[in-house]
TrEMBL record:
Belongs to the FlgM family. This is Negative regulator of flagellin synthesis. GO terms for biological process: bacterial-type flagellum organization; negative regulation of DNA-templated transcription. Residues 36-90 form the Anti-sigma-28 factor FlgM C-terminal domain. The keyword Oxidoreductase does not apply. Responsible for the coupling of flagellin expression to flagellar assembly by preventing expression of the flagellin genes when a component of the middle class of proteins is defective. It negatively regulates flagellar genes by inhibiting the activity of FliA by directly binding to FliA. InterPro entries: Anti-sigma-28_factor_FlgM_sf, FlgM, FlgM_C. The keyword Cell inner membrane does not apply. Keywords: Bacterial flagellum biogenesis, Coiled coil, Repressor, Transcription, Transcription regulation.
Length: 97
């Protein structure tokens, strides 16, 4: 009976050691996660700035948009795909240079 009690105590001690070790490992993982950092590239910052400005831009183009809507509705709007593609490429080139 005394041997069993002694073995139980040893087993309990080992279990406590395992729990403590697991706690320490968990704390170390949490500490290492706190040291993680990120950095944003200058191009990403520029893009975010442009996007923010576009969202906050005044609505001075409403008249132009309404005119285009009317042209589309009446079938009078005929965009030139070549000009559109050229403008897209020009703006893209200017943005990333």
């Amino acid at each position: 009976m005394q041997i069993k009690n002694l073995l139980d105590k040893i087993d309990n001690y080992r279990q406590e050691e395992i729990k403590e070790k697991q706690k320490k490992e968990t704390l170390q993982k949490l500490k290492s996660q706190k040291n993680d950092t990120i950095s944003i590239s200058p191009k990403a910052k520029l893009f975010a700035t442009i996007l923010k400005e576009a969202k906050n831009a005044p609505e001075v183009r409403i008249a132009k948009i309404e005119k285009l809507k009317e042209q589309i509705h009446t079938g009078q709007y005929h965009p030139d795909p070549q000009k559109i593609a050229q403008k897209i490429l020009e703006e893209d080139h200017q943005l990333w240079d």
